[in-house]
Amino acid sequence: MMISKEIGDKEENNTEIITKKDLKKVFWRSLPFEISWNYVRQDHMGFAYSMAPIIEKLYKKNEDRAKALQRHMEFFNITVYFSTLVLGIVTAMEEKNASDPEFETESINSVKASLMGPLSGIGDSLFLGTLRVIAAGIGASLAKNGSILGAILFLLMYNIPAFAIRYYGMMKGYEIGTSLLMQIEKSGLMEKITKSTAILGLMTIGSMIATMVTVHVPLTIGVGHGATKVQGILDGIMPCLLPLGITFIIYYLLGKKINVTYLLIGIAVLSIVCTAFGILSPA
């Protein structure tokens, strides 16, 4: 009720403001959020598609709309149930950007990058690691006895909280984003927050390299008990040195406009060949 009242008050004071109806449009468009997921930028198209009604309303020029859509085609990945919270916050930031020529547009993607890691950790634990397991356990126990209620109960127990969180997150995200931007504007902290969120976003990307890029070298130097593992030497220099190096090489090749499909095929072929000759192995 409080969220509806605050949004309603804004509508009365400014007819150009984002309305609850607009937020509902984003919520509904966010339902197929992961249908276009891919290995390159993951949820970026789902995010841009969800933001399309907001961008269309806020920006009247086609070039401004194009820039906004391009802004949201950057890499983004998050547990889908908390995606609307980020969408709500970003909606408030886009609204501010449309009305303030001095607004730092770089802060939008910085905030997105800083939120996707922590929120994904919470979302995975809450929904995938807890709620889904409990719902599946209860549903399976009924289904085992031949009751169709097992499947129905599983779907209800899992999806009702999931949809409720997504709807509430959309409304609350916009409320948080609006109030936060007003406080920032009064205090002049936008530059510091932009820098801080950019650092946090880079830390998130760094942690993803360490956990998601796996490169292991099984080679040894010497023989018998005195043999030294090459992987141990590399880890002694810097943990995850090879994953970081591989990531920089791929980033460099992407900068040279090499087709992503060719890179993926090249990585697969190189991994198979190096594994066959004992240069690389599963971690």
UniProtKB/TrEMBL annotation:
The chain crosses the membrane at residues 75-93, 147-168, 198-221, 233-254, 260-280. InterPro entries: GatZ_KbaZ_carbometab (IPR050303), PTS_IID_man (IPR004704). The keyword Transmembrane applies. Signal peptide: none annotated. It holds the Pfam family EIID-AGA. Keywords: Membrane, Transmembrane, Transmembrane helix. PANTHER family: N-ACETYLGALACTOSAMINE PERMEASE II COMPONENT-RELATED (PTHR32502), TRANSPORT PROTEIN, PTS SYSTEM (PTHR32502:SF23). This is PTS system mannose/fructose/sorbose family transporter subunit IID.
